[in-house]
Amino acid sequence: MAHETPGDDFAYDLRFQVVKVMNQLVMVIRLCQGAQNAWDMLSDEQSQKHTTTGSGDLNDLLGGGIHCKEVTEIGGVPGVGKTQLGIQLAINVQIPVEYGGLGGKAVYIDTEGSFMVERVYQIAEGCIRDILEHFPHSHEKSSSGQKQLQPEHFLVDIYYFRICSYTEQIAVINYLEKFLGEHKDVRIVVIDSVTFHFRQDFEDLALRTRVLSGLSLKLMKIAKTYNLAVVLLNQVTTKFTEGSFQLTLALGDSWSHSCANRVILYWNGNERYACLDKSPSLPVASAPYAVTGKGIRDDLHTNLREVDATEQATIVFLYLNMWHIIHSQINTVIREKQLQGGQLPIGMDNS
Amino acid sequence: MRPPGPTVPSAASSSSYSQREPRPENPLLLLPSSRVTKLSLGCPLLDRLLSGGLPAASVTEIAGESATGKTQLCLQLALLAPQSPLSASSLFLYSDLPFPLHRLRRLAPKSRPDILDHVLVAAAHSPTDLLSLLARAQRLLANPGRSPHRLPIRLILLDSVASLFRADFDASPADLRRRSALFFQISAKLKELAYRHQCVVVVTNQVMDVVEGDAGNTVAWSSGRRVSPALGIAWANCVNTRLFLTREVDGDGASGGARRRMKVAFAPHLPDRSCEFVIRRDGVFGVEPAER
């Protein structure tokens, strides 16, 4: 094998060793702290294409958050938090770019009347409090182009449509293309909920299926064309199949093929869980989450993992001895090189 | 492939609205400071439980066993509406016959003999009956000028939705589907009225026993039974807020009565919490836990 200079080889080994130790250290610390905090994730480059849900565990489940250019269906029983999550996403999409968010606006199509402004205000306040906590040097005063960190500014950047019938729902989705062409800063469209008005009696069921397919195709096209996330909240129903009643998502057959991602929210005892049921790239998995006064957050009760004494001791040892460990790794590499009879780069011997 | 075209809806509900281009609303304008959006229950403790009272443009369900205070609360609300900042008449749709006129008269304040003028009542004998009543209500709400001596209707009460579905439906899958479709039709109508005219809508519901199944937020203990609101998950999808009234029978019976609790089962704007209350001659009032 040819190497440029002996130094390259050496430097590569050294870097490799240091990186290995650092990675192990970070891994152990993370293991003991629990899953990555949602705010830590925002510093990743990938965050530009996702909207954070407010819960690190949920973000992990979804591969970073709700993806732009894709349609995500979120279903669950009444009261489990669908609307809460929808509102949280409509707020979080607005997190300015300098804080790791998309800095976009939201379209919220409310078909059921669950959008309670006082709650949206509360969630906006919670989001702003978290921003200020994680970026303590930011100010509430805005500089040019920066969004003011006030709840009112978050509210005003949600384009809210209230629709009362399925014809209005069709009209507004048809109108969206024109609207989004005029408002290019929208990065998320939430429909809460997408099937409510279609669950009445339709004389012509074939018509209903055609209409729903047409709507779902349109929404997929919108997501891709305007590079935004489409989130469809759906209700749960009992379906009589094979002699028993089972819980499924409403109108699933007409709908299910058009959503790239599907998340089911459910209760496990007294705790809320989300299950990623369908995804183009991620495995089926579950994660807990909580609905707090500030909005959707991690479920802290399940995150307080029991760190046993050995793990704790290891962390402390590693942390205190980090430099010593790196230094000794360097020495190991140096010794190996010397044994091999290779040349050390200038200045590397014993210093 | 033929592009999908919706049929014109038979009920002349929203045809005029959907011909206009959709326009987004500014959520800032929907903030409570901009308009009166809550109907107080007349008791500060219960109002605190509900963050101010029952919200307008929203359907609130009050579920509970019989004699837990549902009808009493409805009557109380009908009498409070004209006196509250909402300043409204109420439309009381009842399916539990007969209408409790005697109780209403007793609850009415002596200082306002005209208050019963602001309570409109109508009997609903079946789901289709209710739908035609709601269509009439829509015309009434759209033309307030017709009856200038009466306050505009901004409170709609339905007592109770479960009684409407007792007859005519057995447990076969086809009938359950038919029943569910009616739930959504009724709910869509109520929500449309609530939104277009900024009404407070209250629907009462009965409970049924549940033997097993996960807890979540829809099961509670009442009078020693494990119960859940009637009409299942389909109807649960049709309401915005669910309040659960329960009754705990006191073991020692020292206080001479049952402890009653109003619990927020789910609501888009409220945390899960509960409050004790009592039913007195003059109405339903919250009490502090220490008080009895």
Automatic annotation (TrEMBL), chain A:
What InterPro entries does the annotation carry? HR_Repair_Mediator (IPR052093), P-loop_NTPase (IPR027417), Rad51_C (IPR013632), RecA_ATP-bd (IPR020588)
Q: Molecular function terms in GO for this entry?
A: ATP binding; ATP-dependent DNA damage sensor activity; crossover junction DNA endonuclease activity; four-way junction DNA binding
Where in the cell does this protein reside? Nucleus
| Any one GO biological process | meiotic DNA recombinase assembly
Q: Where mainly found?
A: nucleus
The protein's matches in Pfam families, at most eight in alphabetical order, are given as: Rad51
Q: Output the Gene3D superfamilies linked to this UniProt entry.
A: P-loop containing nucleotide triphosphate hydrolases
GO CC field: Rad51B-Rad51C-Rad51D-XRCC2 complex; Rad51C-XRCC3 complex; replication fork
Role played = Involved in the homologous recombination repair (HRR) pathway of double-stranded DNA breaks arising during DNA replication or induced by DNA-damaging agents.
* Homology family: Belongs to the RecA family. RAD51 subfamily.
Q: What's the protein called, per UniProt?
A: DNA repair protein RAD51 homolog 3
Automatic annotation (TrEMBL), chain B:
Compositional bias, Low complexity, is annotated for 8-19
**What species is given as this protein's source?**
Miscanthus lutarioriparius
Give start and end of each RecA family profile domain: 35-207
Q: What is this protein called?
A: RecA family profile 1 domain-containing protein
- Keywords of this entry: ATP-binding, Nucleotide-binding
Gene3D superfamilies from the UniProt entry: P-loop containing nucleotide triphosphate hydrolases
Q: Which PROSITE patterns match?
A: RECA_2
Q: Name one GO biological process term.
A: double-strand break repair via synthesis-dependent strand annealing
